[in-house]
């Protein structure tokens, strides 16, 4: 007769196998902790596993949007293009899994439905949708900021009989739009990247735009060995430059405000940024995101470029964004505006009446009835909080995280929330996360958590949890910093404004790299603002 031994709880369970979860697992294993990743997908990659829409690629340069924790990894991996495609990012992450022997500690096809803290045992119990339970002392959410798809409840949505897609849940086998009439709803980054590709295949593409986005050309290029070597011989310097800047990558930050420059210098600066391409446009002027006048100088420059590219003046005017540049995340494209010169592409303005109805054969919007073979929802995500609130997370006294965050997320440093001991959020709301090169912010959070667990073990402590006063102060600080910028001035997903009913709260923290210094200071002061306990 065999007797089943009780299974010892893990030191940590990690939810999600993207950039965050993989590095977290590696750090914990390195430090001798028992840890396991639970991943909803059938493979690793997180955001990059799900967002497989045509043209998906990163908007931060590959040599910066990659791990820095292992110099050997950075030296041996050869990125093939300036901006990595989704498939190349997947190859990279799978290489990381193999290289650091992470695979045996990862469980796929396991969507976590609940995470409950047991006050008697001091342990977390995570239960999957299939009913499997994992017990661990620490629960680390690496669930991503942009992973809970936003599907607007348009009237009649379920009645549609054609094919429906969401860019954030794209079929792994791909989609062939050849000869098809297609509607795409939304004009954010995902749409801006996919539209040029879908337009080349489809018989006709209708683009339904509620708000125009600012987009800057990527000027993507292949990277040859000489280019890569030039970076690799001095990789640390590139990383150091990036980490000293507010987006945690090198945006060639101009330390001058526009008011300190002549009109000729302003023009030259914008020309230089446009020729360089991509997100370094954020670095054009020191006061780009704090001074409306400066902002509109840069915004008008982009609008001018759109008017130059798009031949139909009325279409160009619709595509020219009206709000502040950078209030919503700036998009990076290859041939986006040019695509609207194609005869098989029609832009439809839904800013006034919205999408009126989805019908069995298509949709009605802006007074037009469209019959289409496929509808693509490029409608974004319930960002930052969605992936957490869709899990039934309960801390002390059975209180749910969703309940606690009903008026907006409450965290200390975006890392923990009072009432939820040993529960960590990697790049959680209240941390720089989406406003930075995510890989750098992820590494900073993972290092903090790994060092924290080592500290608890060394001091024979069991629990860590923020002090309520510390998190209230932090939440107020996050809001105050955002209020001093132009980022409050539009309806962005940073504010939750894209999801009906979501509280209007600025979720990420504007403040890298000072934020990283602040975290170091918290640790130096014996985890100031946290309560550490033995029982
Ligand atoms: O989502 P979005 P996304 N009726 O929220 C529209 C990152 N990312 O997936 O602006 C009609 O930006 C919505 O309109 P509006 C990046 O951080 C990175 O494109 O709310 N329209 C908007 O146009 C990015 O910011 C990369 O008025 C509706 C669109 O749908 C983030 O992910 C690539 C609507 C959604 O745009 C999200 O990007 C892709 C409705 N009811 C994404 N609801 C790269 O690295 C929403 N919309 C390159």
CATH class type of the largest domain? Alpha Beta
Which structural class do you get from the secondary structure elements? alpha/beta
Bound molecules: 3-acetylpyridine adenine dinucleotide
Tell me the overall shape.
Answer: globular
**Count of discrete structural domains:** 2
Mean pLDDT: 97
Could you name the ranges where pLDDT drops below 50 across 5 or more consecutive residues? none
Roughly what fraction of the amino acids lie in strands?
15-25%
Helical region count? Answer: 16
Oligomer: single chain
Major β-sheet annotation: 8 strands, mixed
CATH-derived architecture of the largest domain? 3-Layer(bba) Sandwich
What is the CATH T-level topology of the largest domain? Answer: FAD/NAD(P)-binding domain
Radius of gyration: 24 Å
* Strands, total number: 20
The end-to-end distance, rounded to whole angstroms, is 37 Å
Q: Roughly how much helix do the residues carry, as a percent range?
A: 25-40%
The CATH superfamily name of the largest domain is: FAD/NAD(P)-binding domain
């Amino acid at each position: 007769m065999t007797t089943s031994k009780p299974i010892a709880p893990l030191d940590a369970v990690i939810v999600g196998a993207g950039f965050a979860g993989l590095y977290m697992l590696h750090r914990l294993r390195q430090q001798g902790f028992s840890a396991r990743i639970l991943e909803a997908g059938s493979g690793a990659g997180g955001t990059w596993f799900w967002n497989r829409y045509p043209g998906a690629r990163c908007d931060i340069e590959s040599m910066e949007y990659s791990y820095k924790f292992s110099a050997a990894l950075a030296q041996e991996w050869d990125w093939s293009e300036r901006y990595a495609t989704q498939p190349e990012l997947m190859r990279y992450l799978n290489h990381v899994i193999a290289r650091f022997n992470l695979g045996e500690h990862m469980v796929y096809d396991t969507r976590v439905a609940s995470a409950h803290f047991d006050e008697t045992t001091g342990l977390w119990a995570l239960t999957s949708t299939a009913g499997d339970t994992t017990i661990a002392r620490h629960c680390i959410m690496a669930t991503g900021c942009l992973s809970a798809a936003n599907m607007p409840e348009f009237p009649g949505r379920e009645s549609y009989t054609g094919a429906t897609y969401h860019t954030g849940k794209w079929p792994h086998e791909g989609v062939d739009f050849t000869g098809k009439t297609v509607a795409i709803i939304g004009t954010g980054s995902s749409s801006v990247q996919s539209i040029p590709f879908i337009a080349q295949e489809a018989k006709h593409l209708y683009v339904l735009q509620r708000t125009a986005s600012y987009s800057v050309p990527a000027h993507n290029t292949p990277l040859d060995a000489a280019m890569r070597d030039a970076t690799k011989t001095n990789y640390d310097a590139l990383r150091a430059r990036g980490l000293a800047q507010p987006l945690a990558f090198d945006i060639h930050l101009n330390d001058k405000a526009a008011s300190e420059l002549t009109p000729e210098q302003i023009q030259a600066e914008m020309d230089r940024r446009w020729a360089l391409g991509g997100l370094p446009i954020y670095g054009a002027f020191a006061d780009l995101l704090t001074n409306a006048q400066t902002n509109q100088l840069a915004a008008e420059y982009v609008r001018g470029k759109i008017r130059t590219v798009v031949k139909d003046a009325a279409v160009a005017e619709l595509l020219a964004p009206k709000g502040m540049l950078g209030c919503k995340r700036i998009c990076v494209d290859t041939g986006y505006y040019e695509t609207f010169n194609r005869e098989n592409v029609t832009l439809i303005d839904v800013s006034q009446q919205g999408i009126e109805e989805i019908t069995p054969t298509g949709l009605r919007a802006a007074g037009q009835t469209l019959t289409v073979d496929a509808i693509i929802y490029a409608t974004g995500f319930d960002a930052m909080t969605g992936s957490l609130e869709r899990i039934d997370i309960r801390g002390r006294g059975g209180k749910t995280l969703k309940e606690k965050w009903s008026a907006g997320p409450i965290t200390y440093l975006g890392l923990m929330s009072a009432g939820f001991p040993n529960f960590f959020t990697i790049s959680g709301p209240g941390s720089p996360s989406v406003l930075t090169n995510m890989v750098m912010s992820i590494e900073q959070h993972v290092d903090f958590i790994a060092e924290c667990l080592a500290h608890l073990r060394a001091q024979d402590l069991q629990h860590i949890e923020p002090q309520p006063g510390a998190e209230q102060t932090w939440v107020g600080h996050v809001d105050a910093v955002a209020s001093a910028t132009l980022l409050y001035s539009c309806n962005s997903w940073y504010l939750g404004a894209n999801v009906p009913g979501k509280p209007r709260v600025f979720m990420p923290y504007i403040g890298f790299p000072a934020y990283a210094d602040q975290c170091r200071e918290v640790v130096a002061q014996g985890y100031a603002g946290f309560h550490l306990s033995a029982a």
